[in-house]
Amino acid sequence: MSEITPDTAISASFMAREILEIPEAAARLSPGSGAAERVAAELSRRAIPFVVLCGRGSSGHAGVYLRYLIETRLGLPVSASAPSVVTGYERVPRVAGALFVVISQSGRSPDLVAATRAARDGGALTLAIVNDPTSPAARAADLVLPIAAGPEWAVAATKTVVNSFLASAALVAHWAGDRELAEGLGALPARLGEALALDWSAWSADLAAAPAAFVTGRGHGLGTVREIALKLSETLRLPALGYSAAELRHGPRASVSTATPVLALRQADPTAESVDHLARDLRREGLTVHACGGPAGTLPWLPDGHPACDPIVMLVPAYRAIEREARRRGLDPDAPAGLTKVTETL
After folding, report:
1. What is the superkingdom listed in this entry's lineage (predicted)?
2. Banded model confidence at residue 9, pLDDT cuts 50, 70, 90
3. CA 290 to the chain's CA centroid
């Protein structure tokens, strides 16, 4: 794989350059974030009955990842917030004693800010996981966990997504006292750097004639699955759906065909076998499956790391393949049609 050099940097997309910045951005949060440790210490002093997560788009996918970490490491039930309950229906949630977490790269979307304020008014302890610690969402929250990704100019978020996942994992590692997870996070900057060399063009090449695409995985990988599907939609203008490997066997299976490639992501944890079986069954039916990880893997991958950290690493080769495929098609990966960097919804 060719790298961006000083001679080619001027013509490279912001997205490409920001993908290359991912290992350095991650190193600012690994092996541990002082902010994550301070926030976790505050959470540990409280008897929190449940957690509510709030975020849209890529930040919402980081929330899916955080949900699995909280439920598997802390045993707390987690719910997703619906901001329109506040902004549209003007109802204040009854969340006294709960932890309300808003995840936002910009921290400026009015609905997320309003939902955070309403949760605080409703008695929740509010936490903002944001790239801009001075943003309205951060100011509306009791606690702030900066992701320290640095400026990001491409509309398609990459390094801020990786650091949102990473900050979420650092928070849970400290909160749950999970030393193995903390060690896995410590290895992430180096693994993310190695992942820059993984060539997933065999997958992206099969997208060229596809009318739609599917991405699948399970557990800690589900947030990554949904994030990659989003990047296919916004950067390649390709309708893409991200499903758990369990869900894809149900209704969505009827729409998978030889024309719709499937990307299967598999981390080495208790969900691995079900992803392997799905990939095997789809291939037996003559369908196109590109798999990362495990015995059914067809895409370049690293030796397995911590299973809760590997889904973060899988974002990197997917991002690189999508950015390159966009440029091959003559699309601008920095300016997807109809989108802006800060999406203001109510």
Report:
1. Bacteria
2. very low
3. 20
Binning pLDDT at 50, 70 and 90, where does residue 337 land?
confident
Contact assessment for residue 184 and residue 26, using Cβ atoms and an 8 Å cutoff: no
Q: Which helix (H) or strand (E) segment is 226 a member of?
A: helix 222-236
Query: Rounded distance, CA 225 to CA 81, Å?
Result: 20
Q: Cβ distance 100 to 127 under 8 Å?
A: yes
pLDDT by residue (tens digit) across 145-170? 999 999 999 999 999 999 999 999 99
How many alpha carbons lie under 13 Å from residue 103 in its C-beta half-sphere? 29
Token pair 């820059």: residue: 196
CATH topology of domain 14-192: Rossmann fold (3.40.50)
Tokens matching residue 291: 């798999």
Q: Domain 197-328 is classified in which CATH homologous superfamily?
A: Glucose-6-phosphate isomerase like protein; domain 1 (3.40.50.10490)
Q: Which of 321, 300, 51, 19 is nearest to 163 (CA)?
A: 19
pLDDT at 344: 55
For CATH 3.40.50.10490, list the domain ranges present in the chain. Answer: 14-192, 197-328
Q: Give the pLDDT band (50/70/90) at residue 125.
A: very high
